[in-house]
Every structure is written in structure tokens, then in C-alpha cells.
Amino acid sequence: MDLLSKKRNVDGNFTEDSCFWAHVEEARFSCGQKGSGGGGESSEAKNRLVEFQRYVMEQIENYAVDSEIFLRESSYMVWWKEFQEVVAIVGSGSSSLVEYMKSGRYLSYGSP
């Protein structure tokens, strides 16, 4: 399926990676570790969060996730809120996902 077809079908209640929500929960756990300080564990948590951001952006760019991930109370949006709080506390570089989310482009995800 080409990207245009995928974009049209974003609201079809599908997420291509069946482990997407498990990745979200792991990222939420990593936010807790990153926010708690602590040397090596915090460094590993940072690496997992960087990798998670790349993974999510790839899924978004390929229209491989349902638009429901952006619902206010979804686990993904809960992670996004937690992640912003961690970044405010410990600092972090920018990423394409951070820019995507902060710009509000996610609000039109899947729109023609």
C-alpha cells in the first residue's frame, strides 16, 4: 500500500506494529527512570527514549499508526505529557518528534 492510500486509511483503527502500545508503556517507564536522576539507569533510560522518539516518528511518517494515538487520554498522549515534564527537569535535545508534537502538526495527522 502506498503512502497516500495509508494516509487515507489512518482512521481505520489500525496500528501496523502490534507492539506499538507496549513500546509506549516502556517509554512511560523510561520517563520515570529518567526523571529520578541516577547515573547508568538514567543514561539507559535516555537512550531508550531517544530510540522511542525515532520509532514513533517513523510510524507517523509512514502512516503506520491510527490517529487515535493522539486522543487526549491515550497512553501515547499521557507519555507525551510525562516526557515534556522530564525534559523540563533534566533537559534534552530536540528531535523531529518533539518538533512535530510541539508544532501541533499531529492535530491534522491523516487529514487529506
Keywords:
112 residues; 5 helices; mainly alpha
Describe, in plain words, how this protein is organized in 3D.
With 112 residues, the protein is mainly alpha-helical. It contains five helices and no strands. It has helices at residues 3-8, 20-35, 39-61, 75-90, 96-103. It starts with a helix and ends in a 9-residue tail after the last helix. 20% of the residues are buried. The model has no long low-confidence stretch (mean pLDDT 84). InterPro entries: EDS1_EP (IPR041266), SAG101-like (IPR044603). GO terms for molecular function: carboxylic ester hydrolase activity. It comes from Linum tenue.
List the quaternary state of the chains.
single chain
Strand content: under 5%
Could you tell me the radius of gyration in angstroms? 14 Å
What is the number of E strands?
Answer: 0
C-alpha end-to-end distance: 16 Å
List the helices and strands and how they pair.
Elements: H1 3-8, H2 20-35, H3 39-61, H4 75-90, H5 96-103
Helix pairs in contact: 2-3, 2-4, 3-5
Q: Quick summary of this structure?
A:
This protein has helices spanning 3-8, 20-35, 39-61, 75-90, 96-103.
